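Continuing the batch. This is chain 6 of the set; chains 1 through 5 are on the previous pages. Same settings as before, nothing changed between runs. Recording input and output for traceability.
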Amino acid sequence: MSNTIPATLLNDRYWGSLIYLFKNHYKLTECFNTRFFDMKAETIKIQTLKKHAGPWSSSEKVMLNLALHLFNERYKFTLSDLDCLDDNNRKLAFEAMRIRFRNY
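Output for chain 6:
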């Protein structure tokens, strides 16, 4: 990603959980670029990202939806959707949730 990620965002539990998933999930990593993110302005082009993800598999969409929900609860997520994830993706999901809900 050509956008530099400010340390303040990495330390923010909302941004941190989203960034963790986008840096560690193979499909989300492909989208972690300036087409969808402006780190300086701290914005995400959510609708563009969701449209881009249209043809993705259901488990890939689960990871995207989880990332967006951990970032902002306005983006709905159903916890039982984690059932469709393999072990590796489930580990990523739980680590992202740990980042988001730390100190709680």
